[in-house]
TrEMBL record:
Naturally occurring in which organism (per UniProt): Drosophila arizonae (Fruit fly)
Listed Low complexity bias regions: 510-526
Coiled-coil stretches: 429-456
UniProt cross-references to Pfam families, sorted A to Z: Abhydro_lipase (PF04083)
Transmembrane segments: none
Gene: LOC108612086
Origin: domain of life: Eukaryota
Domain Partial AB-hydrolase lipase: 82-134
Name of this protein: Lipase 3 isoform X1
Length: 550
């Protein structure tokens, strides 16, 4: 629209102004759950001054005992994911993949040679760091690595690790012309194919949080063949139907969706909350244990995710808030806003005319959840302001292969607790690992059954071959005017590796065997044929000896 125009960022002054008025409105509207200094006002001058004074005073406080812990926490806050992983004694690798539409994505890996790969996808405004930033005691990345998995953590386009492009520059708005739809359509296939080719595996486990689940539904709906590449999918705080979202912040924002869309277009704002040095520095200053403003930080989280003071380790706030938020496109938020408003889980609404051009209909088409053939486990909670239980119920009804639907048994467990809660392991991850193992065991059993079934088939085919040979010999021994019912020695195939077609052929041939004995010429031969046919027919019901378990 504005070729080569420079993209504005969320933190620039027009946005700050716009948001100030909105946030003021919000805080007045629903002040019960949080006491908050406008969370988005960090770019205003007065707030900066406040931070600086806090910084100075808190430095004076910190001469004493907490020093090591504090410097440790502050270091964690400033390290990028691979360095953070290495700091805690795990190996780490960085891989880059290029999507079909040219975005260059970074993936972080805790490698384990020859092990089953698992792909972890973060939510909106988040990064790969989210799976490790709470440290080896409760980070899912470390936990899976300890259990013997090859852990891959993706980064969606637009976050701080995936801001490069083969031809576009993220300073310009053309770069930011995407929603989560493109992440499902281009980013995930690129990630998955790269991992599989690198590891030699045919399938991987997928674990997503929030938007990381939505893009998975998009992938399977848009490219159903990818279902074949996933052993199991685990959805933490799954997003699809978000009409009933409870978040007062987003409920209010969505009322202004049209206005906000128009305003951001006019102001050419395309990027939302990038991970700037300013944000990193100041979250370290404002959120650490000795800062009197620490409550502001926790309230920012509660505002977005749901109130829960028990499960939040406040000491880690500087780490959380310096790694997150980490950049998203405005269009991406707009798309989520549309889902909230319409109650559908569907493609981006471009307006009547452009919908006609793009989708050949007035409204955008829904994503087809029935194509998600993968075994899916859903993990959700009551106090999640972004995911309603009714939304998850509907999602579970529409997904064809749900193996677990787990409501976390803690009333105040919120959206971000799925990543950072103190007790996230006993509350969620242990169950997740059990589900992974369950699917793997079922697969193993299935493979073993299939193998023994094939062996059985092979044996039976061999027997048949022998019978035919015998019969052919018999045939040649007969006087020339005696005819056996023909087709007996036709139609047998040599045993092959595929089970199903083999069974059908066998069954068909066996039918031929029993039905063909017509107009016998001599009694002896008919009897011969009949006995042979009976032998062959012994296992009449060729049912598959096991079920394809869900
Ligand atoms: C992205 O571009 C920046 C700046 O050119 C460069 O420093 C960085 O290494 C690039 N990252 C990738 C993954 O290509
Ligand atoms: C909170 O985090 C700090 C720093 O990593 C850690 O020392 C402490 O044990 C954590 N607290 C709880 C309750 O897990």
């Amino acid at each position: 629209m504005w070729p080569n125009s420079r993209a504005c960022r969320w933190g620039s002054w027009p946005t700050a102004l716009l948001l100030h008025s909105l946030v003021a409105l919000l805080v007045c509207g629903s002040a019960d759950a949080f006491t908050i200094l406008s969370p988005f006002s960090y770019s205003s001058l007065s707030f900066k001054n406040l931070l600086n004074s806090v910084f100075l005073s808190s430095n004076a406080n910190l001469a004493g005992g907490g020093r090591n812990l504090k410097s440790d926490v502050l270091e964690d806050a400033s390290l990028i994911t691979p360095k953070l992983i290495r700091k805690y004694g795990y190996p780490s690798e960085t891989h880059t993949v290029v999507t079909k539409d040219g975005y260059i994505l970074e993936m972080h890996r805790i490698p384990k040679k020859g092990a089953q790969p698992v792909l972890l996808m973060h939510g909106i405004l988040d990064t790969s760091a989210t799976w490790v930033l709470m440290g080896p005691k409760s980070g899912l990345g470390y936990m899976l690595s300890d259990l013997g998995y090859d852990v891959w953590m993706g980064n969606s386009r637009g976050n701080r690790y995936s801001k490069n492009h083969t031809s576009l520059n993220s300073d310009y708005q053309e770069f930011w012309d995407f929603t989560f739809h493109e992440m499902g359509k281009y980013d995930l296939p690129a990630n998955i194919d790269y991992i599989l080719s690198k590891t030699g595996y045919e399938q991987l486990h997928y674990i997503g949080h929030s938007q990381g689940t939505a893009i998975f539904w998009v992938l399977c709906s848009e490219q159903p063949a990818y279902s074949q590449k996933i052993t199991s999918m685990h959805a933490l705080a799954p997003i699809a139907y978000i009409h009933d979202m409870k978040s007062p912040l987003f409920r209010t924002l969505v009322l202004f969706l049209d206005f906000l869309t128009a305003a951001t277009r006019m102001l050419r704002i395309t990027e939302f909350m990038p991970n700037t040095k300013f944000l990193v520095d100041h979250s370290q200053v404002v959120c650490h244990d000795n800062a009197m403003t620490q409550d502001v930080c926790s309230n920012i989280l509660f505002l977005v995710a749901g109130y829960n003071s028990e499960q939040l380790n406040k000491t880690m706030l500087p780490v959380m808030l310096s790694h997150t938020p980490s950049g998203a496109s405005i269009k991406q938020l707009e798309h989520f806003g549309q889902l909230m408003k319409s109650g559908h889980f569907r493609k981006f609404d471009r307006g009547y005319l452009r919908n006609q051009l793009e989708y050949n209909r007035m409204t955008p088409p829904d994503y087809d959840l029935s194509r998600v053939k993968v075994p899916v486990a859903l993990y959700y909670s009551v106090n999640d302001l972004l995911v309603s239980t009714t939304g998850v119920d509907r999602l579970a009804r529409e997904l064809p292969n749900v193996i677990d639907k787990y409501l976390v048994p803690m009333e105040r467990f919120n959206h971000l607790d799925f990543l950072w809660a103190i007790d996230v392991k006993p509350l969620v991850y242990n169950r997740l690992v059990r589900n992974i193992r369950r699917v793997e065991n079922q697969r193993a059993k299935l493979t073993a059954n299939l193998a023994s079934f094939l062996a059985m088939q092979l044996q039976r085919q061999q027997q048949l071959q022998n019978q035919i040979q015998m019969q052919t010999q018999l045939h040649s021994a007969l006087p020339p005017n005696v005819h056996l019912p023909h087709r007996i020695d036709q139609g047998f195939m040599m045993p092959t590796a595929t089970a199903m077609p083999l069974t059908t052929t066998t069954a068909a041939t066996m039918t031929t065997l029993t039905t063909t004995p017509t107009t016998p010429t001599t009694t002896t031969t008919t009897q011969e044929t009949a006995t042979i046919a009976e032998d062959v027919m012994e296992p009449t019901t060729t049912t598959f000896p096991f079920e394809f378990a869900a």
